[in-house]
Amino acid sequence: MHSRNNGLWGNYFLRFTKFGSTKKNQLQKIIDNINSRNNQYAACYIMHVSSADTDSNTRNIGNPCLQYVQFGQVGNTLNLTAVYRNHDFLRKALGNYIGLSKLLEFVCQETGRNIGTFACHSIHYFLYNKRNVQTSFNNLTW
User: Fold this and answer.
1) Is the model's pLDDT at 3 over the cut of 80?
2) Could you report the per-residue pLDDT of 84-103, keeping only the tens digit for each?
3) How far is it, in rounded angstroms, from Cα 77 to Cα 116?
4) Could you give the 3-state DSSP secondary structure of residue 100?
5) Higher pLDDT, 14 or 81
6) How far is the C-alpha of 32 from the C-alpha of 107, rounded, in Å?
């Protein structure tokens, strides 16, 4: 954990499993809801990362870059969508994608669903800490 943010930096998994002041386990709730439904609804299950309890909505640095993760069920398949507010595209993206892919794999194992697609949206991205770099990466689909 990063000391600049009072121990709240870089702990997405903790935010998934102990979210906000109530320490809600968002990940377990999603797994339980998927497993308890008899029908395979095309519903989406969302885990928030940013919390009004711990984060500021006006500070540019120090808030989590990953804002939320959404699981969408289509038949017996789960898809994952992630939204980042800020993304160091070349230094952080690959690690983030691997971690999110592992998260999708874990939820699929726990629910007996098939692994579907993974999409990542970056509201703002940059390359090697160079802000406002214009590239051809604007509309990537993975």
Assistant:
1) no
2) 888 777 778 888 889 999 99
3) 6
4) helix
5) 81
6) 10
Residue 113 is predicted with a pLDDT of: 95
Q: What are phi and psi of 99, to 5 degrees?
A: -60, -45
SS (H, E, C) the chain: CEHHHCCCECCHHHHHHCECCCCECHHHHHHHHHHHCCCCCCCEEEEECCCCCCCCCCCCCCCCCEEEEEEEEECCEEEEEEEECCEECCCCHHHHHHHHHHHHHHHHHHHCCEEEEEEEEECCEEECCECCCCCCCCCCCC
| Secondary structure (H, E, C), 48-79 | ECCCCCCCCCCCCCCCCCEEEEEEEEECCEEE
Domain 3-126 falls under CATH 3.30.572.10: yes
SS3 category, 96: helix
What residues does each domain of the chain span? 3-126
CB 78 within 8 A of CB 116: yes
